[in-house]
Amino acid sequence: MSAILPPSKRIWWKHPLDKVELTWLAIAFVWALVLFFMMPYWHVFGKQNLSNEAYRISAESFQKKTQAMIDQHTVRTETDQKIPVVHPPVGSDIYLIARLWAWWPILELEKGQSYRLHLSAMDYQHGFSLQPTNINLQVVPGYEMVVTVTPNQAGTFAIVCNEYCGIGHHTMVSRLYVTEKK
Ligand code: CUA
User: Fold this and answer.
1) Residue 110 Cα, ligand 1 centroid: separation in angstroms?
2) Does ligand 1 lie within 6 Å of residue 161's CB atom?
3) Paired sense of beta strands 143-149 and 115-121, if any
4) Start-to-end C-alpha separation, the chain
5) 0.85 exceeded by the pTM?
6) Average pLDDT in the chain
7) Does 164 sit in the ligand 1 pocket, CB within 6 Å?
8) Which of 77, 80, 104, 145 is the most exposed place for a label (fewest CB within 10 A)?
9) Buried b vs exposed e over 138-149: b needs ≥16 C-beta within 10 Å?
10) Does residue 169's CB lie within 6 angstroms of at least one atom of ligand 1?
């Protein structure tokens, strides 16, 4: 049989299933099931796959909420871009904007306290990866992803964009501060 010419026998595919083929189909099927059930497994027993909520929101309204938080709770600015560092009240709703190619603002949280973290994108899809922890979230325009976070470690964490979002993707990095309880 050739890829260009029609097959000599019109019904060329009607053969009994070969043992090897069946074995590989079975292996692939079982493995697909294993991977499928690992998703709920990691959610229940692992520290990955956070319980998150997603809501529709426009970029303008998300930006407005973020700006309101920045206006009220900025404690200082950092770098020559004057990125506001926000220390929001414990237990409050906190907002982080993803856009080409930056995170806005920088959040400063307290260890052992819970916050409702809202994430949304202004333009294209971005990825929120918190290093060195194993936390990954999709950040999508038109939606906000909401997660309840309780930092259990103080320090400086890195936020990396892990969805390819264009020429400046590799520069889309930021920080998240966690201070000891006040
Ligand atoms: Cu944003 Cu890659």
Assistant:
1) 27
2) yes
3) antiparallel
4) 75
5) no
6) 92
7) yes
8) 80
9) bbbbebbbbbeb
10) yes
- Calpha distance 102→73 (Å, rounded): 20
Instruction: Give the length of the chain.
Output: 182
Q: Is 172 in the pocket of ligand 1 (CB under 6 A)?
A: yes
Residue ranges with strand state E in 79-134: 83-86, 93-99, 102-104, 106-110, 115-121, 126-131
Question: Which residue, chain included where needed, has tokens 């019109």?
Answer: 10
* pLDDT computed for residue 27 by the predictor: 98
Token pair of 144, please? 């906000």
What is the distance between the alpha carbons of residues 177 and 182, in angstroms, rounded to a whole number? 14
Cβ atoms of residues 145 and 139 within 8 Å: yes
Name the residue type at position 74.
T
pLDDT in tens, 5-16: 888 888 888 888
pLDDT at res. 91: 92
Residue 48 scores a pLDDT above 60: yes
